[in-house]
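User: I'm putting together notes for a lab meeting next week and I want to include a structural view of one of the chains we've been expressing. I don't have a solved structure, so I'd like a prediction I can at least talk through. The sequence is below, exactly as it appears in our construct file.
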Amino acid sequence: MNRRGFLIAAPQSGSGKTTVSLAIMAALARRGLHVAPFKCGPDFIDPGYHRAVTGNASINLDGWMCGEGFVLTSFQTGLTSLTSPIGQTIAVIEGAMGLFDGLGVSSREGSSAQIAAITGAPVVLVVNARGMAASAAALVKGFAGFDPQVRLAGVIFNNVGSDSHAALLRGVMSEHLPEVALLGCVPRDESLVIPSRHLGLTTVEDNPLSDEFIGQLADMAERCLDLDRLSHLDFGSLRHRSVQAAQPTDVSGVMSDNRLVRGAEPIRIAVARDAAFCFMYEDNLRLLRESGAEPVFFSPLVDTALPPDISGIYLPGGYPELYAGQLAANAGMLQALREAVQADMPVYAECGGFVYLTQGIDSCGSQPSADFVGIFPARSRMLPRRKALGYRQVEVTQATAIAAAGAVVRGHEFHYSEIGAMPEEVERCYQVSRRGEVLCTEGYRVRNCLGSYIHLHFGSNPGIAATFVTACRICTTLTAYSC
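Assistant: Thanks for the context. Below is the predicted structure for the 483-residue chain, given as structure tokens.
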């Protein structure tokens, strides 16, 4: 298997690693390489830009949510899927936050450093050099010696003010840290900045990258970076252990049997995907396919009916609040979803998808109030400050379409909205905890419809996708909406 590639990290968020990552991906793709993009952590927005630049799906690698075994499998699968006899594949992994920032002080879990250690990826450190010269070399030296399991292959200085500033940086690196390659100096350029909003960068669906912009990114990388050296970096040996030996969570209580789907026709699961619903892990879709599903994409924004011959529905997160008026005006889709739930079709909704299934969203600032599907008897509202952010562990306390009682799943929560008081008669199926502390009970169920704020990664429990597909398969012998 091709083993070339690297992980792009930074000392802290805001250093410019996304712009630099996209520029490198664009330039390598223009050179004819098959770029396999990956993203450390639970972020959904950066992978969308990776896909736009490379033409390939970007896969999240998260050591806390999924554990070492699944990370290795996911990484190898992502590389193998692009292996080509006529072109070389190169892996480019974009880090998250600071290189060593993860779940806690004494643990690498959830950090980019953990992914580097698991995969053997050499690390390219992007340092915001604004206002620094010799201090930049001191910072790099600290990162180079901090963790013996992390191999620092080189550094890229970003936000370099001038040619003389670049010369100073090259001089101090040559004198004080000659063993770390200086792979380039990127000048300040506001024209290459991607705009942000309340959940981070604006999504690629709302900020599509033009061919001209992608070309400018590639031109910058060719001009400012040592792409020849970058393209010849290679991975060290992967951890020598069975990928089955490192499951992150207890999988007891997940009783689905993949033998039920062997040799059977794939069952069709409708998956919402448009500008309002675009937050989903690529591996969730892969695991559904491997369990016997055929994801069929649809748009709640523009489609007035669900896809034909479906047996289940998956509503991922996104930005329904930004499209509340358009979603509310699509009466055909609202009614189709109501009928599917009333017919007991398995429906799984998370975060934005969950909000869409409530009675509606109340006005916040310039956004008007809007009425939604109304499956869950509560309304949502946007808040001026972030409501929740962080990793979550879920114990399933009541059997659902995705898991039996007792299953443990991991995921991530990040939202600015909140749901009003949910009536007591609505069943709670999750006990949610963080670092061993119980936070709440949620995972609301109405009939066979499950909704939650938590983005679950199906890779955290190998039975989730298969259980959902098995629940949906019951519908295949019945007419649409008669499950």
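A couple of points you could mention at the meeting. The longest helix spans residues 63-80. The chain has two domains: 5-231, 258-477.

User: Perfect, that's what I needed.
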